[in-house]
Structures are given as C-alpha cells and as structure tokens.
C-alpha cells in the first residue's frame, strides 16, 4: 500500500499530492480504473450540485488534485462522484462486536490484484474537520477508517439496481470520518443527505454504539444487534426484509453469502470469547472461507483492518491476512 499524509486545507492537500505525483511521472487519469463516459459525465454533473451544498470541501480537494495533476477538474469529479454507481468490482466483509471488554470493528477489502500497488492508507488532518486514518482502493474517497473521536466506519458495495444523484459509498465514508463523532450522527446524516449508490455501512463509536446501515436512494434500514447477539455483519448483499429486493443475484459477488455465514456463525459461537484476536482469526479465514481466493485468477484480499475502538488501536494487514500478520499502526492521535 502507498502511505500518504495529508494536511492543511482540502485544496492544498489535493494540489500537493497531485503535483507530487505529476513530478514523478504518475498520472491518475491514465490508470486502468479511471473510466469516463458520457453517461457518467451527465450523472456526475447532477451529483455536483449536491456536493456543493453538503460537502464543498471535498470538491475543493478534487479541484486541487486536478490542478496538481495538470488535468481537467471535470474528469476528476466525474470519476469520483460517479464511483460505485456503475459497475465496480469492490467486494468486502465488515463486522463489529461488543462486550464489556471489547468494542471491535473488522474489515477485509477484496479487490483486483493487478491494482494492488495503487491502494492507499491515508492519514488525514485537514483544517476545520476531524482527522482520521483510512484506507482506499482509489483516492479521496475512503472505504474504511477511524477518526480522532473513535468513530469507525466501513462500506460494503452492493451492485447498483437503482441510482440517483447524491453521495456515493466512498464519499459517504469520507464525510462521516470528517464530520461525525457518533453512530447516531452517522444515521442522522444519512437521513439528511441524498444517497446515490447502494451499500451497507458498518459503524461503531467510542461509547460502543454500533450498527449496519443498509441504504440506497429509496430506503435506509438500520440493523442493530438483537437479543443475545452482540454483533453485526455485512458483506455484498442486503439481508433486511425491506432491502433484499435490491440485490442482484445474476452477478458474481465473490462468495458473499458464504462470507456472511462464516462471520455470523463464528461470532455467534464465540460470544463469550470476543477479542481482537478473534476478529483477526475470522478475517484470516480460520473459521471458514473469508479471504482464501485463488490469487492467480486476479482477485484477492488486498488489506485487512481491525479497529479496537475501546482501546483506540489500529491493526492492519497490507495484503491477505491468511499469509501476513496484523501490524499495529500507532500514528493516529485520538482525542481524549
């Protein structure tokens, strides 16, 4: 993974990073994932008005990046604002669990091996918003992270059955990390901000409130731990009754149902043994299929992360956790 530190204003950090890449001969708009179509241009222009109202800072960063890259602002915002709303091969597993001693959030990011050198871990501390440590397969948008107030958030992608101008998954995660302190604030924000894509969002805060939120432009369903189950799980399909109609069963979801069952059953059977170690064992496939992809077919788990929310610790594997060890990242400075 590439490691980046981002400071100052949103525009400055975008410009400085884009300019640094440009000076080193790296041009984002030439990357294989950077796809611009007329359909995406039209959709992104509709989304632009919503970001101008709710999140102008991120547009400043996109403009700064485009300027630093000597590229077109329209191309960069088109790519980023339309992400997750058209075909995108991002697959992942999230879960969170809690007992009196542990508030744990875990996530595997499963993606294309060919692009793994482009993936980023980002340490952000920008003017006027909360600092965070996050991970992404692209740039500016985030797929998981924890902020300085101990709010952990992670997405799982649901192939879009319906879309509408609004925030996409990765920019929702980025927004929450920069703007929210609690799970309740995340849920309130989702009811206020227009949503573009289909996704689940797993959220846990420093006081131990946590949930999976299944959402698209039509519905929001909050799944909280119930009964004796002190955990939630999400993969690449909706499970709530009101949202399952939006699943697409005709596409390859990289064994999403199996990953969901493995994580769910492992957590249900080990509720008296919750720990960061249990999270690592589940993510690394010791309780059943989770990350054991056939790498020679082009897919793999490209990072795995555990956020120990109660103890304010971050553990990450840069690669597949069945082959590499979790390493603590102690650079993040949390607020008391």
Give structural notes.
With 336 residues, the chain is α+β, with helices and mostly antiparallel strands. The chain is 29% helix and 26% strand. It is built from 8 helices and 14 strands. The strands form 2 sheets. It has an 8-stranded mixed sheet, covered by helices on one side. Strand 5 and strand 6 form a beta hairpin. Helix 1 packs parallel to helix 3, helix 2 crosses helix 3 and helix 2 crosses helix 4. The chain starts with a strand and ends in an 8-residue tail after the last strand.
What structural class is derived from the secondary structure elements?
A: alpha+beta
Strand content: 25-35%
Contiguous uncertain segments of 5+ residues: none
Order of helices and strands: EHHHHEEEEEEHHEEEEHHEEE
The total beta strand count reads 14
Summarize the structure.
The protein has 336 residues and is of the alpha+beta class. It contains 8 helices and 14 strands.
Observed structural traits:
about 325 residues; alpha+beta; 8-stranded mixed sheet; 6-stranded antiparallel sheet; about 25% strand
């Amino acid at each position: 993974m590439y490691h980046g530190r981002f400071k100052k204003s949103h525009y400055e950090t975008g410009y400085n990073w884009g300019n640094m890449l440009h000076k080193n001969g790296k041009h984002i708009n030439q990357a294989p994932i950077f796809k611009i179509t007329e359909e995406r241009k039209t959709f992104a222009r509709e989304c632009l008005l919503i970001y101008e109202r709710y999140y102008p800072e991120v547009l400043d960063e996109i403009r700064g990046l485009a300027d630093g890259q000597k590229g077109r602002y329209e191309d960069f915002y088109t790519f980023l604002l339309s992400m997750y709303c058209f075909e995108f091969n991002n697959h992942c597993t999230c879960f969170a669990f809690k007992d009196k001693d542990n508030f744990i959030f875990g996530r595997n990011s499963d993606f294309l091996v060919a692009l793994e050198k482009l993936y980023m871990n980002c340490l952000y501390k920008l003017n006027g918003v909360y600092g965070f440590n996050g991970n992404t397969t692209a740039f500016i948008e985030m797929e998981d992270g924890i902020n300085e107030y101990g709010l952990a958030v992670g997405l799982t992608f649901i192939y879009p059955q319906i879309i509408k101008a609004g925030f996409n998954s990765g920019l929702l995660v980025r927004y929450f990390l920069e703007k929210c302190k609690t799970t309740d604030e995340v849920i309130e924000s989702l009811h206020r901000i227009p949503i573009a894509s289909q996704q689940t969002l797993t959220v846990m805060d420093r006081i131990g409130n946590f949930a999976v939120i299944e959402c698209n432009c039509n519905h929001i369903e909050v799944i909280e731990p119930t009964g004796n189950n002190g955990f939630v799980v999400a993969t690449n399909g909706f499970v709530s009754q009101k949202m399952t109609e939006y699943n697409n069963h005709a596409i390859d979801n990289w064994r999403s149902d199996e990953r969901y069952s493995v994580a769910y059953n492992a957590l249900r059977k080990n509720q008296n043994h919750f720990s960061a170690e249990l999270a690592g064992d589940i993510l690394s496939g010791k309780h059943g299929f989770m990350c054991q992809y056939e790498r020679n077919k082009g897919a793999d788990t490209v990072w795995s992360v555990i956020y120990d929310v109660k103890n304010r610790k971050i553990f990450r594997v840069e690669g597949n956790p069945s082959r590499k060890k979790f390493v603590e990242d102690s650079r993040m400075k949390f607020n008391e």
